[in-house]
Amino acid sequence: MKKLVLAAVLFSVFFLTACARNPATGGYAFNFYSDAQEYQMGEEYHPQLVAQYGEYADQNLHNYVQDIVNRLGDASHRPDLNYRVTLLDTPEINAFAIPGGRVYVCRGLLIYINSEAELAGVMGHEIGHVTAKHSVQQMSKQQGLDFGLLLGALFLAKDSEQNAQNFLDLGGAVSNLAMLSYSREDEMEADRLGLEYAHKAGFSPLGIEQVMKMFERLSGKQSGLSLMLSSHPTSETRSKQARIEVRKLEENQNINRDLERNTYLGKIKNIITGRNPERGVVNNGSFYSAYYQLTFNGGGGKFSLDNGYLMAWQNPQQTVAAQLDLLEMNNNPEKTRTTQTEKSLGTTAHTVAGRNWNNSRGNVYIYLAQAKDGYYQISQYFNIYRGKMLCLTVTEKLSGQQTTLVNFDSALQNLRPLSAAEAEQIKSARLEIYTARAGDTWESLAKTYFPGAEAQKLAWFNGCELTDSLPEKIKLGLF
Ligand SMILES: [Zn+2]
Asked: What's the pLDDT at 387?
């Protein structure tokens, strides 16, 4: 009896939530998640995002972007949500939102944007995804099948309360949040909502046209840039729609025509460009991280810094690979090792022997793993940095028929703390804002500051064409 009542209650709760009216679109959407659940999902996912990208620590810039987000949020269809922005410390040209009102903008995008109105357009678009509940609707669709199965299970299973609890546990949904990509229709809808919110909040809607043009240029083959814009189809269609919508708005209402270019450029002056060298930089065959206070001597091997914030390395003979990761404190070494082994050697690999001990270098675990093509020694070194677990994994192919553990890898010995002098030498490249003088041209500036580079790229980077006259303030940088 108790089971049936519980099922009925659950069913009605889900039924009501599932058929709730969408605040932004006015339509009825298929959505299992309440506002409280959205918030909870966002809060669960947020630390993972911050761990992955790192937060860009610039309180003034953060406050400025947060003010813009607050104004947009107040003008939106869900003004009661607490919109909180996080600046991410990555050169990726991207922005995104998660359910519950958390929005993110990457340092790389802030550098490309040329005015407050453009930024308001981008953040308005992201808030549009939140108000129109695009992610939660997608998740609801994905969970639709599971929901049917659960109702069946509730009537049959012995531990139905437990099943219901599992369903309510949002962990599974949260882990999939990053995998979601929006449909073209969702993107167009977010564009329309973003424009509406930006205009209503008093920003110039002309910024949306500008930022669309920027995305169009960046996605062009000529730009030679690699972008992370997969969730945002940058097409002429979107740009065209923005132009049409802005013209429509102009015809019917007074619009703010001031993009606030100089205000914005004043705020992003000195922002770190490119990859933050404090997190890690390769110089003369070694990796240096001022942030994690360590250095790794590659001894002529090859580094890759694309792996999150840290590094991957391979020796010249391609027999030893090392990878530096930052893990949550609650990851247990056993699980981490299994994941790492599978990642580097494939799922057929399994460990056959292992030992671990503490020494002056921190915790070291050494394992023997058997893969399809022979035996590997996997050594893992753990230490605590800034509330996270820093882990160096060294994978070494053992020669011939060797099936026993050798000693510490030399690669493991290559890791040591950074000296104060070394830390001092790590300098960040920062964005310079230049005030144009009489006689300056795009060509002359490119020639002076970026010898050998195309003036076209400098103009585009400043939101202009080569044929446009120079604006008063110019971002000096090329990407
Ligand atoms: Zn979008």
From this structure: 73
Looking at mean pLDDT, say which of 48-57, 265-274, 359-368 comes out highest.
265-274
What is the token pair recorded at 60? Answer: 């003034």
Report how far residue 292's alpha carbon sits from residue 69's, in angstroms, rounded to the nearest whole number: 32
For residues 68 and 123, what is the distance between their CA atoms, to the nearest angstrom? 8
Ligand 1 midpoint to CA 66 (Å): 19
Distances (CA, A) of 365 to 11, 333, 359: 49, 8, 11
CB hemisphere CA count around 470 (13 angstroms)? 20
| Alpha-carbon gap, residue 300 to 320, rounded angstroms | 12
- Please check whether residue 75 is in contact with residue 203, taking contact to mean a CB–CB distance below 8 angstroms: no
Q: What is the pLDDT of residue 3?
A: 41
Place 405 in a pLDDT band, splitting at 50, 70 and 90: low
For 47-145, strand residue ranges (E) read: 84-88, 95-98, 102-106
251 compared with 232, residue with greater pLDDT? 251
**Rounded Cα–Cα distance for residues 445 and 447 (Å):** 5
Helical segments of 283-332, H only: none
| Alpha carbon of 183 to ligand 1 centroid (Å) | 9
Domains of the chain with CATH codes: 2-268 (no CATH), 281-425 (2.60.120.1690), 432-476 (3.10.350)
Round the average pLDDT of the chain to a whole number and report it: 78
- Rounded CA separation 74/101 (Å): 12
Query: Does residue 389 carry a pLDDT above 80?
Result: no
Q: What is the dihedral of CA 75, 79, 81, 86, to 10 degrees?
A: 10
Q: What is the DSSP-derived secondary structure letter of residue 477? A: -
Compute the distance between CA of residue 411 and CA of residue 318 in angstroms, rounded to an integer. 12
25 CA distance to ligand 1 centroid (A)? 16
> Which of 68-77, 86-95, 386-395 has the lowest average pLDDT?
386-395
**For strand 362-371 and strand 374-385, is the pairing parallel, antiparallel, or unpaired?**
antiparallel
**Cβ contact 195:38 at 8 Å:** no
Q: What's the CA gap between 266 and 75, in Å, rounded?
A: 25
Of all residues in the chain, the percent with pLDDT exceeding 90 is 33
Ligand 1 center–CA 26 separation, angstroms: 19
Task: Give the distance (Å) from ligand 1 centre to CA of residue 273.
Answer: 24
pLDDT of residue 415: 83
Residues within 5 Å of ion ligand 1, judged at the Cβ atom:
187, 190, 232
CA distances from residue 478 to 266, 397, 454 in whole angstroms, order as listed: 18, 41, 9
In whole angstroms, what is the distance from residue 281 CA to residue 288 CA? 5
Token pair listed for 479 = 């990407």
